[in-house]
Amino acid sequence: MFGKLLDYKVKGQEVQLYFEHKEAKIEVLSNKIIRVFAAYQGEGVNSCAIEEEKKEACHVEVAREGEALVIRTDAVMIQVWDGFFVDFYDARGRLLSKQYRGERTPLCVIPDSLRAFMEQEGHTFDIGDGRDYKIQQVRELEDGDCIYGLGDKTGVLNKRYYEYEMWNTDNPDPHEDHFKALYKSIPFFITLKKNACYGIFFDNHNKTYFDMGKESEDYYVFGSEGGNLEFYFFAGDNMKEIIAEYTSLTGRMPLPQLWTLGYHQSRWGYETEEEIRYIAENLRSHDIPCDSIHFDIDYMDGYRVFTWNKETYKDSKQALADLTAMGFKPVAIIDPGVKKEDGYYVYDEGRENGYFATDAEGNEYVNTVWPGESVFPDFGRKEVRDWWGKKHQFLLDQGVRGVWNDMNEPASFNGPLPDDVVFYDEDRRADHAEMHNVYGHNMAKATYEGLKELDKRRPFVITRACYSGSQKYAVGWTGDNQSLWTHLRLAVVQLCNCGMSGFPFIGTDIGGFGSDTTKELLTRWVQVGCFSPLFRNHCAKGRASQEPWVFDEETLRIYRKFVKLRYRLLPYFYDVCRETALTGIPMIRPLVLEYEKDENVRNLNDEFMVGDHLLVAPVLEQGQRKKLVYLPEGVWYDYWTKEQIMGGGYHIADAPLDGCPLYVKQGVILPMYQEMDYVSEKKDEVLFLEAYGANTRYVHYQDNGEDFGFEAGEYNEYEFQVEDGQLKTSMLHEGYTRYGRIELKKIY
Ligand code: MIG
């Protein structure tokens, strides 16, 4: 459709391409980040993921070489051919990614008549059917290529051979491997080749389609019927570099408040003040450390956002103050749907100012969600975001410390909203089809910015729906999983792939949200939760309770053991968080991110790492008491027995019900807190150090864990070195009160 390449013009780092039938553009953002663009909708389409100019000055050479136009940076060589075929090589001329020139070979074509007939019997079809999209890339796959990322998708870690869609979806059915979409849309993936890797970010927030080699062994396809052809190509020496580049473009998770890394107790729903107090007291009396209790929709007055129920709470401010005095930080849910009701202040304000989405004719668009008939704030507009952000003063005044955004796909009780509902993209009139995938993103952004201005602390926002770049504003959870062993297995994949997609702070509902958990499932789940960034037990209304004490003594004891382990490891988690905030490299990593040359870890679905020194091999099967663990090259220590194990192979680990196989890589000094009930209780009294290896070095970060003082230098950075049994501490930066005591506990 582009035709022959007739001419080109170089403007700085931009190469304008004039094809017979269409113009296109290749822009060099840095040595290793290349933007490929062709307008279908217009140049004015706003990227919701990339919010600042990201161009870095670098060396670019452009020359005609035979049939191709060749663009060179110090790291990549790009060939542009007739038809706007674009191929990428590294600086040494090694192939990274080539556009596919052949005919597509659909896996299976079913005549419409037969399809209709089979559908009557309940068959469904979701095989790659060779459909072409208006905007499309078909790129070659080579033998052995593995694909990671694409946000929160079901199935396995390596996305090659599977097909997905980006369309934020709230589906209450058990999330199964063939689901094409869940709540989050992150159109970014990394291809790991035998000896190289690259990343692609298809920055198009319309519904997009990804067939990652299901249709054919020879190519993958991504495309859309809307927006522009606009993607970024990332070159890098390894996958960590690709993630660093992707997050340099779309933004990184800011440093969170320390307590958000603690344990959170939730359920839908604790209905009354008495119930919440009962939960708080039981957490403390059962000696389960905990930093947060979450308030699901029942706290509101008739599900009206920014209200508190006066019947079920005698005095909500007092109740929250009492919880706060016990060390809990209340987190409250906020849905986007605003009850359509005259006299309700949020509705009145929004309606007067025209802040709600309309139908194509300009009438307020109404759909049903929890409060009944509801309207939807148009978060794509700055004015609306500012208004919504300020509304959070109500929650802060109540004593709330974090906000949990749900239903922001947006979901309704009648399925997805019609495509033509009018939503704005800043000042440009757009529609639901175009803005759907960024609705949750913009809501989270409004919430983050509002809290940041009003509260001065580092905002804690949890979102269910997101798009690329949402990591700047919110953490996430994987939505409505179920109490199923398959969903515990899925949890590991979800945590890893969200991290690989630049969205690192994520958790699953421990115990499972839907269905009823068993004590064994809950026990194995807390062993995964203990190492998940967001560590929250949550459960659906009408389902069996799953607080840690509702089963027997043994379940409670094991649960407590893992929550306590998490609290002891908090300084390590916080260090890993800081690395994530600075580099984008995720806290939770599949082993392949650390050991990408090792073929054995490319399809490893049941182990993961926290940072680069802790390896977790959780039991994910009912009844299993041994686990086959793969340890990559190097020397490892069994965390529980301190036995040394040589990596580079498989070993069978004991995994009794109260044990989760856990390994520490030689060379780390693990920083640990003493036991505590909640973070602010005694976080700076003492720091213990466990050195794994005779000669070790470790850099540790400490600050007040709460506000933005660290940006002005209010933090400490320690360099610990253990040599010949002696601890040497030097301060790389000093700007905060030091620990009362630092104690070298043990050297292994
Ligand atoms: O339609 O607020 O995923 O965590 O407990 C259910 C009630 C709405 C869905 C969320 C879940 C939450 C629930 N919400």
Can you walk through the features of this model?
With 748 residues, the protein is an alpha+beta fold. It has three domains: 5-248, Sandwich (Immunoglobulin-like); 258-520 and 536-552, Glycosidases (TIM Barrel); 669-747, Sandwich (Immunoglobulin-like), CATH 2.60.40.1180. 21% of the residues lie in helices and 29% in strands. An eight-stranded antiparallel β-sheet has the order 1-2-3-4-18-15-14-11. The chain has an eight-stranded parallel β-sheet with strand order 31-30-28-25-21-20-19-32. α6 crosses α8 (432-455). The longest helix has 24 residues, at 432-455. The protein starts with a strand and ends with a strand. The mean pLDDT is 97. The structure holds ligand MIG. Residues 268, 296-297, 333, 406-407, 464, 479-480, 513, 538 line the site of ligand MIG. Ligand MIG binds at residues 268, 296-297, 333, 406-407, 464, 479-480, 513, 538.
CATH architecture of the largest domain: Alpha-Beta Barrel
Alpha plus pi helix count = 14
Q: Could you say which structural class the secondary elements and strand pairing correspond to? A: alpha+beta
Q: How many runs of DSSP E, i.e. beta strands?
A: 46
Describe this protein with a few key phrases.
748 residues; alpha+beta; Immunoglobulin-like; TIM Barrel; 3 domains; 8-stranded antiparallel sheet; 8-stranded parallel sheet; globular; binds ligand MIG
How do the helices and strands line up, and which of them pair or pack?
Blueprint: E1 5-11, E2 14-19, E3 23-30, E4 33-38, E5 61-65, E6 68-72, E7 76-81, E8 85-90, E9 95-97, H1 112-120, E10 135-140, E11 146-149, E12 163-166, E13 184-185, E14 188-192, E15 197-202, E16 208-211, E17 219-224, E18 229-235, H2 239-250, E19 263-265, H3 273-285, E20 292-295, H4 316-325, E21 331-334, E22 338-339, H5 345-353, E23 367-369, E24 372-375, H6 382-391, H7 393-398, E25 402-405, E26 422-425, E27 428-431, H8 432-455, E28 461-463, E29 466-467, E30 475-477, H9 485-500, E31 506-507, H10 519-529, E32 535-537, H11 553-568, H12 570-583, E33 588-589, H13 591-594, E34 608-610, E35 614-616, E36 626-631, E37 635-638, E38 644-646, E39 649-654, E40 662-665, E41 669-672, H14 679-682, E42 686-691, E43 696-703, E44 715-723, E45 726-733, E46 741-747
Parallel strand pairs: 13-29, 19-20, 19-32, 20-21, 21-25, 25-28, 28-30, 30-31, 42-46
Antiparallel strand pairs: 1-2, 2-3, 3-4, 4-18, 5-6, 6-7, 7-8, 8-9, 10-17, 11-14, 12-16, 14-15, 15-18, 16-17, 22-24, 23-24, 26-27, 33-34, 34-35, 35-40, 36-39, 37-38, 37-40, 41-42, 43-44, 44-45
Helix pairs in contact: 6-8, 9-10, 10-11
The protein binds ligand MIG.
